[in-house]
Amino acid sequence: DSSASIGEFAYIGAFAYISEKAKIGNNTQIWPGAFIGEGVEIGDNTIIYSGTKVYKNCKIGNNCIIHAGAVVGSDGFGFAPGPDGDYQKIPQVGNVVIEEFVEIGANTTIDRATMGSTIIRKGAKIDNLVQIAHNVEVGANTVIAAQTGVAGSTKIGKNCMFGGQVGIAGHLKIADQVKMAAQTGVAKSITKEGTVMMGSPAMDAMQYNKSYV
Description:
The structure is a single chain. With 213 residues, this protein is mainly beta. It contains one helix and 31 strands. It has one helix spanning 205-212, and strands spanning 5-6, 11-12, 17-18, 23-24, 29-30, 35-36, 41-42, 47-48, 53-54, 59-60, 65-66, 71-74, 79-81, 87-89, 95-98, 103-104, 109-111, 117-120, 125-126, 131-132, 137-138, 143-144, 149-150, 155-156, 161-162, 167-168, 173-174, 179-180, 185-186, 196-198, 203-204. The strands form four sheets. Strands 2-5-8-11-16-19-22-25-28-30-31 form an eleven-stranded mixed sheet. The termini are far apart.
């Protein structure tokens, strides 16, 4: 769009769509077929690969990589049951904020907040096929492996490591440096830093091993 701002030496590939009032930083690459929504801000030296969709008003920092097919800013899963059992949509008016040096894997989805922001902090690395729900916060330098799902409003600390297919319920707090083995199922907050968790329901890894034996 003519109202979009494109930085110096930015690359805009064929059939990419840049919406009204979007801002694209210097040396940033928008690959063919990507969609950048209204009012989106993307920093410098960031790569948005083909087929990525970034919904309106989301913000992506410097030096990020968003792989093909990722969706940033789709509506959070918010519905209120009516008296007849039908569901009414709750407007999702927040956004997604991705800080610098973040990498988002292919076909990963990060929902916009109901209000406020869903936040991916500096240096976080998120694998393919991960679901981050509305109003979640992922701490700095946390790594999350494929097929993990994080329910709404959960706050994850910094320097955490989650294996594949981890499931985390909503409205929880996960302390810094927590590690979770693959397929760990978390139903309550983890308050002790550096805890290693396994199993579903999640428990301390040594306790899990004893129970398994």
